[in-house]
Amino acid sequence: MANVPPPKRHPYDQWSPDARALDLVGDKWTLLIVRDLVSGPRRFIELQRVLPGISTEQLRSRLNRMVADGLLTRKRYREVPPRVDYELTERARDLMPVLGALARWGYEWAWGPPRASEVVDIGAIFRLAVGNLRLPEAGRTIQAVVREPGRTMSYAFTTAAGGIELAERGVRRADAAIAGDREAWIAALSPDRDRSGLEISGDERLAAAMLDGLSGRGYLLEYLAAGNVGVR
Q1: Residue 41 sits in the same domain as residue 145
Q2: Per-residue pLDDT for 55 more than 90?
């Protein structure tokens, strides 16, 4: 896959830290690429799948710019067909609280049911949890399962000292599990927060805390003070 030169930069040319930051991350798609790599490395074709509105040339160009800016690393494997993985650097991972704050603003001022023109990817909302969610006890695991026509997607959230870690895979044991089809997840994460279509098992208060955070409502933390230890 031939590389496309990074696009010409159009800096703000202002000596201000916010302007300097926007010089690096203010272009269209950059922050969404950061969001979609937070759960681990992805191949080019996988990024195309989770960013359906971006053209092939746009994605190549944006990835090249982000590598040049020290936001991503690119690892090539000697395989046939060729395989290239993109991964966030520490510099880019530090943007997740920024994305979390942007998401909270979006929940407050711009959120609503999906528009007809919008692609629905529940995983995009899950990936924002890394920058948006805080639960006070490390080592707790919540599994989320999204059933779509022709495929089932599993996500494992693990609480850590600094927030939430996410792996896009299933786990054998979890403190809480939440599952449903895409329509049930849309209903649960929309402003009305209708969770009746979801299947919840294990520690229901932990699951509720997770769903509250994912829907921008805040977090139920008191279940820990009450001595809840979860169900495995």
Answers
A1: no
A2: yes
pLDDT, residue 232, reads 33
Residues 103 and 47 in one domain: no
Residue 56 and residue 47 in contact, taking contact as beta carbons nearer than 8 Å: no
DSSP for 36-54, written as a single string: HHTTS-EEHHHHHHH-TTS
> pTM for this structure?
0.87
Domain assignment of residue 11, yes or no? no
Mean pLDDT of 185-198: 96
Distance spanning both ends of the chain, measured CA to CA: 46
Q: What phi and psi, each to the nearest 5 degrees, are found at residue 58? A: -60, -45
Triad 226, 228, 232: Cα angle to 5°: 175
Sheet of 72-77: strand order equals 42-43, 83-88, 72-77
pLDDT digits 0-9 by tens, 59-91: 999 999 999 999 999 999 888 888 899 999 999
Average confidence (pLDDT) over 197-203: 97
Report the 10 Å Cβ neighbour count for 76. 10
- Residue 5 in any domain: the answer is no
Count of residues making up the chain:
232
Integer Cα distance of 192 and 152 in angstroms: 25
Residue type for position 34 = V
DSSP element (H, E) containing 187: helix 182-189
